[in-house]
Amino acid sequence: MASSVVDRKFLGKLAKEVEPENPLLSSILYKLLGLSHQLSDLLVKARKQRKLGSDSAEDGTQNVSTHILWLAREGLVMLEQYVLPMVANSGALKVLAYKLRASLYHVIVLFHNQPPVSARYIATPEPTPARLDKGKGIATDDDFLEASPAMQQRSPYEGGPVAPPPGFGPKPPGAFLLPVGDYLPTAHRYFREAVNLADKHLWGSHSLRLSIKTEYSAFLYDCAHDEEASRRVARKTINEVYEATEGIDNDMFQDACELVTVLGRMMKRGQPPSNRSKASSPGTVIVGGQQQPTKQQQQQTEKESIRDHSPFEELETPTTGVHHPSSEAHPGFI
């Protein structure tokens, strides 16, 4: 879900703002905030267990995945029954509610989608080990057939084990929580709705808008497997940040810098190292609809040695000790 610190900041802030006028909505937002913290910890735990890849961790991974699906289902119930009907006339709160719904479906697609979007998220039940025969059972005719090699010869027309008919095979572990199906189109539609709302109500450098675009880019890459669209969303979002002229406070500025850094990495995601410099925007920054050369490009032009330069190159080196909220337990980075 909204496991990034940016989304939790807005959840707490907006829950406090609406408390005098709508205590019920405020209490639901606080519950979603607590659910987000729990889900964030479980996503981190699931990522660590999947990195281990050992048989001893399969039971724990299955239990964690089931807990994640349960939290996602409960979050969707609260959003669709209480929050979304109350935020029709709101601005940032409506954008946040739509973003949380898309994030929850993002989690469901990763852990419960059929067909699975990636082999990393296939949850297969463990086979039941056969019990050892201690020789204390009752003898049957089958025992004599197994003991006699001559009786073990099968007819050429006798078949082997028969697979169950369609629809009667083993179900995923989380089938008792959510119906088995393809949630990818629904998640994609909700992401597009959240992006359209963010473009309508929030300016280009708003940290909540950047959080939506960052997770949408990760969703396109990891779930929809549309790498070019993912890089295109990241590139367009970075250009919108540089075009924005609205003022922001220090906290939002720091969050925006960190999210732009993540978007810069996602622009180069899935490309060979030789093409990563070309994936970045060339040495021009779009300001007010016009392309203007950067200072470094002007200096290099004077020296007649023009090189490609990314407009967010200065932001790609994270500051020591600074926490990156958008990369913590983000569903798209598991």
Describe the structure.
The protein has 334 residues and is mainly alpha-helical. It has one domain (5-125, 173-301, 312-333): 14-3-3 domain (Delta-Endotoxin, domain 1). Helix content is 54%, strand content 2%. The chain contains eleven helices and two strands, in the order ααααααααααββα. Strands 1-2 form a two-stranded antiparallel ribbon. Helix 3 packs antiparallel against helix 4 (92-112) and helix 4 runs antiparallel to helix 6 (184-201). Residues 122-130, 280-295 and 297-329 have low confidence and may be disordered. Residues 290-300 have a biased composition (Low complexity). Residues 268-334 are annotated as: Disordered. This is 14-3-3 domain-containing protein. Residues 272-283 have a biased composition (Polar residues). Residues 301-312 have a biased composition (Basic and acidic residues).
Individual helix count: 11
3D shape: globular
Superfamily at the CATH H level? 14-3-3 domain
What name does CATH use for the topology? Delta-Endotoxin, domain 1
Radius of gyration: 26 Å
Q: How can the largest sheet be summarized?
A: 2 strands, antiparallel
How widely separated are the two ends? 12 Å
Report the portion of residues in β strands.
under 5%
| Arrangement of strands in the largest sheet | 1-2
How many β-strand stretches?
Answer: 2
